[in-house]
Amino acid sequence: MKSKLTVLSFLIVLLTTSYNSFSQNKTNESPEIKDIISKKRSFNSTFGFGYRIQLYNGNEQKARAFIARFKVEFPGNFSKLVYYAPEWKVQVGNYKTKLEADKDLIKFQEKFSGIIVIPMGK
């Protein structure tokens, strides 16, 4: 009697877990989901969001000095001077992931202090 109960319990657990795994796979294979994923990918490739490293936030003269110093210290890296009233920002890099930005953040921190990774987007 005890062995029958054990076998029955095992079969119930086995059937329950296999049913859950099959239901998840059916959801990912539906044409509607695939269509939504393709639309999301095309949107991201057109209007992709990412990350930048912000070196400075403040007045115009210091911002221009920071960007000039950055171009001397790290030639070949993208840098941008941005004005959001009433402050000027020095932002560098175009990174897809935060991990990529963090790698360069460590490199830039040797020359610049107080810098942060900021997300681009809306």
From TrEMBL:
Residues 50-117 form the SPOR domain. Pfam families: SPOR (PF05036). One of its GO terms (molecular function) is peptidoglycan binding. Residues 1-23 form the signal peptide. InterPro entries: SPOR-like_dom. The keyword Ribonucleoprotein does not apply. Keywords: Signal. This is SPOR domain-containing protein. It comes from Polaribacter atrinae.
